[in-house]
Amino acid sequence: MASPTPPRDDRPPRRSDGEQTHAAILDAAMRLASIEGLSSLTIGRLARELGVSKSGVFAHFRSKQRLQQETIAAAAEVFEREVFAPASTAPEGLPRIEALCEAYLSYVERGVFPGGCFFAQLLAEFDAPDGPIHDEVQVGQRGWLQQLEEHIGIAQRAGDLDGDVDRAQLAFQLYAPLELANFLATLYRDPSLTDRGRSAVRATLAAAASSDRTST
Amino acid sequence: MASPTPPRDDRPPRRSDGEQTHAAILDAAMRLASIEGLSSLTIGRLARELGVSKSGVFAHFRSKQRLQQETIAAAAEVFEREVFAPASTAPEGLPRIEALCEAYLSYVERGVFPGGCFFAQLLAEFDAPDGPIHDEVQVGQRGWLQQLEEHIGIAQRAGDLDGDVDRAQLAFQLYAPLELANFLATLYRDPSLTDRGRSAVRATLAAAASSDRTST
Description:
Chain A is mostly helical.
């Protein structure tokens, strides 16, 4: 049967089409989950959002659980690209800590996800209920705090931060204003509230600066 | 027809029965919402949790919206009783700020809600989606921050806190560790993580203390 379409070798391979659709669904899924929460992310809800059939979305993920897991993985790639990658060019220690905090606040300020930080949402949503996503959130949060602690240790050995400061406590104090800045900037539709986070990080680092450093 | 039940005048009035049931449903609703989120709180979900019929719960609330609104109001009463009331006996200014932060951390530590602070959950859930609950969360958050700011102002006039410190910024820096302590204590099932919040509040207040006060 004659076909009006161009010869097959001129068209993008079928697999790439499917991959593009898959990526577009995941993109909508991340955006939706950042606003409404991952628990609200059903195949039906997503199909309605995309204006496609439920069976079309179902064919890509087969279950709500797999859809949720792939959405988290896709959001982790965005976080890697938007926060970790820009910060990774800063020297280790104090500059890296400052770069990580700034990269996070910039990612919130630029509205990378329309509902605010995907992982702050995920923390609040899955802090209490048991299950595989709760376990994944625990691992992610531990990794984030450990990364801060690691560079606090380097900054202490370099004499940039007071060696007596408790690393886990300081990491907590740097993380807290980032998290609240995200929630309040989202709540009040006011990206400039990330500046409260910036001032808090600056004040916390200044208070933890080694007295050798501040006196010179 | 003879009845084995005691004479009617010995039993509690019917209205009180209904009120007790209503309160018991709201109690379960608050607990459930603190774990799974208010959006998951449907009449059907709540009936399943309580092991009663959907129509039995429906008769009390008539709509998901009313159930959610009454649940928020009931949780606000709990917050009033567990956080604001104990703190209100402290003198205004710096002691009140310390008492408010301590009352909040104690409320988290004691697991008043099984899924952590009801209103931290509500903030994360309704920061992004438009609607009446979003608006209510804005008002609640503003009230909480304004209460902190008000007592920061009193503490500044009393010479307990540095008069040059930005009140809104300091309120933000006191609030941030409370919020993160709540999420991490819930995530790691470790109430002792509220101590990170306590240390952070102490450090923040010490940094904002007026130099007159710290030098005497």
